[in-house]
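So, can you check?
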Amino acid sequence: MKINPVVFSVVITVYNKEKYIYESLKSTCAQLLKPAEIIVVNDGSTDDSLQEITKVNDARIRVFTIENKGVSNARNFGAKQTKGTHIAFLDGDDLWLENHLEEIHKMICLFPEESIYALGTSYEKEEKLIEHVYAVSNDQAKRVDYFNASLHHSILHPSSFVVVAELYSQLGGFDIRYTNYEDVEFWFRLGLKYPIVFSSKRTVLLRAAENSLSKNKVCLNSYCFFEDYDHVQTNNKAFYRILDLNRYSLALICKENKKREKFKILCAKIDGKHLSFRKKIFLKLPSFVITGLKKIKEKL
């Protein structure tokens, strides 16, 4: 799918990010390659996020406040408001380096026939910067298979990928049934059909917001358990490994939250050859031990 010229539309979704959204929005406005428009979707925030958004004065910004129905719905709503050829997403607590869109544009020029582009990410926690490690460790953009390239860490993140607007519309965007693992489900749909143009050059800074999903009370009804992928047939062996690694993560969440039946169902689907010895041991540990180990890991 070749599109020329490239016009970037940015979609920023916000739910109770008053401590972060101002800097996130400023990082978008400060891009060396300027986006044509910046769509901010205030997803029913109950804090002062909206007031922080209005502090940024830029004619390209359009703000929409909608009823809170989850991040998938917010992203899809924002995408429908765009007019550009390519949509770049940013979560309301993350930052772009000033060259982010410029680097994406270079990738599009190198691979104009492709539809999905992504750059590397770093993670900020308690003033420490952690660089994500990828199976593809090359600053030069290349066309890769999502699953093989994501065996160490996913090459796609909601704040780091750009997609051709037409394709996003055709796919229906993120599945609004889910607000947890909704991004992974979308990556699966992309990865099973399309190559990804990726460079591990890190232009995105992910920040651990205080109200992030990982710190909220778990509601498993909002989680994607990948039932739609139970019977997928593909020659891509890495797909099955990535699928089982996500099932493993979900199984631990179920065990922690004492959802025994769901835990058993997930474990029955996992092919043991896709798990390390350590992961197999974790599945057998009591829930209170898993919770304790997670707390220790967070402190460390």
The first strand starts at residue 8 and ends at 14. The chain is about 35% helix and 20% strand.
